[in-house]
Write a structure and sequence with these properties.
globular, mainly beta, Ubiquitin-like (UB roll)
Length: about 110
């Protein structure tokens, strides 16, 4: 399996076999929650922890779930999303953390 990785908010087009195998801490606007591989996506993790995130498609097409990645790394297990993703932005519906991350919800 090849994963596209976003490193500290900067796009990294290098593909890697890196897969998260441990839980990672997700800091959201000063709140901390745990992401586990059972969550499948960052959006699922946030919803499970009652953190309100905007979304529509859940597939990386619309970009409604865009948040700012302040620290850490995420990957897109199904490849880069089709929606525009700016510098330091990620789409929660289709990414998973590969390290502890810090995000800001708009």
């Amino acid at each position: 399996m090849h994963l596209a990785v976003l490193v500290m908010g900067q796009a990294n087009n290098k593909l890697t076999d890196q897969i998260p195998i441990v839980e990672h801490v997700v800091t959201v606007n000063n709140d901390k929650v745990s992401f586990s591989v059972d969550d499948k996506t960052l959006l699922n993790c946030l919803e499970k922890n009652n953190i309100d995130v905007h979304y529509h498609c859940r597939d990386g097409f619309c970009g409604a779930c865009r948040v700012t990645l302040n620290k850490g790394q995420v990957c897109y297990p199904n490849g880069e999303p089709l929606a525009f993703v700016g510098d330091n932005e990620i789409l929660t519906c289709c990414c998973i953390p590969t390290s502890d991350i810090k995000i800001t919800l708009e």
